[in-house]
Amino acid sequence: MDRYLGSTLAYAKARGVSADIDALGKSLIQPDITILLLLDEQAQQKRLRARSVTAEDLETLNQNFCQYVLVDCL
């Protein structure tokens, strides 16, 4: 199980990295299984603030990240 492939691709897409990131992801060994843990928004915000996430990161995560994770993983 690769803990980083899915999240790395989702973060890149959410931050507007070129669509070539899809080709890169497909060229790597794909994990056999992906486990996606979902939190309600309140719990998510609490955990992010506890990690001193920047305001820019919060904005990116709120607007784009979750939609890319859900689309790519489901």
UniProtKB/TrEMBL annotation:
Record-annotated Thymidylate kinase-like domain positions: 1-59
Pfam family, one: Thymidylate_kin
Domain of life assignment: Bacteria
Protein name: Thymidylate kinase-like domain-containing protein
Organism: Pseudomonas veronii
